[in-house]
């Protein structure tokens, strides 16, 4: 049994995730923020649980908070960005859990201006696809405005950058910028935890008028 707590300015409500088969329209965009720090042992289970949600209208932000496990957590995160275009990865210097969550809020609040770093656009050594062994390409961006949380790179799936709502092009300076999708809710998930497949769908049923949902 998984409990979800929804916060707004006036109260808090706890919801128990039950397997309710009633379907709801998937017209609300949910931003999912997952801080990551030395969790290679648990990370795949966590991210698989997000991919397997019955509610699919998601924009998932992974925030690697300066993991020190020889890039194990970072490479797993890149693997999932490469295979699911809903995922974006921010790699930052260590600042603690609150810092990583604040980066997620800032990202979805469109606080950052980015530009494509062509020198770091590369194939992911840890991700494969079904096209004769070819590997998906990760696009890398860096911050060009204030960067208080010391973000090193932002990675996206090449397919995601082909979606109009994800990128903008400035003809004046040949700049390609990655932008967050417009969202209706932000949900936080710890990277050593996981969701039952229906958790987000159940949560959305109770979230009218609420902006931040805490799992």
From TrEMBL:
Record has rRNA-binding as a keyword: no
Pfam family, one: Glycos_transf_2
Residue ranges of domain Glycosyltransferase 2-like in the record: 32-118
Transmembrane segments: none
Coiled-coil residue spans: none
Keywords: Transferase
GO molecular function, one term: hexosyltransferase activity
Name used for this protein in its record: Glycosyltransferase
């Amino acid at each position: 049994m998984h409990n979800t707590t929804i916060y707004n300015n006036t109260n808090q409500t706890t919801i128990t995730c039950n397997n309710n088969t009633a379907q709801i329209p998937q017209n609300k965009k949910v931003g999912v923020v997952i801080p990551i720090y030395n969790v290679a042992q648990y990370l795949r289970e966590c991210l698989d649980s997000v991919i397997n949600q019955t509610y699919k209208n998601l924009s998932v932000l992974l925030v690697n908070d300066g993991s020190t496990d020889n890039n194990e957590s970072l490479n797993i995160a890149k693997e999932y960005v490469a295979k699911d275009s809903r995922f974006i990865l921010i790699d930052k210097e260590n600042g603690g859990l609150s810092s990583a969550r604040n980066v997620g809020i800032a990202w979805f609040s469109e606080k950052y201006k980015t530009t494509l770093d062509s020198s770091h656009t590369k194939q992911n050594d840890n991700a494969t696809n079904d096209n004769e062994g070819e590997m998906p390409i990760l696009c890398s961006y860096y911050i060009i405005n204030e960067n208080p949380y010391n973000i090193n790179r932002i990675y996206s799936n090449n397919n995601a950058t082909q979606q109009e709502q994800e990128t903008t092009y400035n003809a004046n300076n040949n700049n390609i910028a990655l932008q967050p999708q417009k969202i209706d809710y932000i949900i936080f998930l710890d990277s050593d935890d996981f969701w039952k497949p229906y958790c987000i769908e159940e949560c959305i049923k109770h979230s009218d008028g609420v902006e931040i949902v805490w799992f």
